[in-house]
User: Fold this.
Amino acid sequence: MLGGKPPDQSLEATALVNEAFVRLIDREGIDWENRAHFFGGAARTMKNILVDRARRRHAKKRGGGIEKLPFDEEVHVPAREEETDLLALDEALDKLYGMDASLSRLVELRFFLALNVQETAEALGVSSATVKRGFCTAKIWLRRELDGS
Assistant:
């Protein structure tokens, strides 16, 4: 969302952050352990908001259609000209989580919170080199998963 919203995307970045904030403060009993815990929760909440909106758009009673988000390096995911289906990305991230939860969290922080390498490293408590290696691995895996190859 950093480069402006796609033509079929009706949720502004500010509205996404506001909705995520409302959902985060509505949760009772969460004691944020540290910055990484909060960022992880915020990234997951933003992902859920976007996926929920995509699912509603795809509902047959609303006529279906595919909501797409840009899939380029500017928003910290694999560079490519075409757009990627958000629901497919969510499914791929769930599969990645099952294989390697740390890589899935890394992608969520970079993509949904748009954290840079250093910020991601601080949030996860790892080195920048670990983030770079992990993100490279995750990008390759996600590209293969999303391309179906």
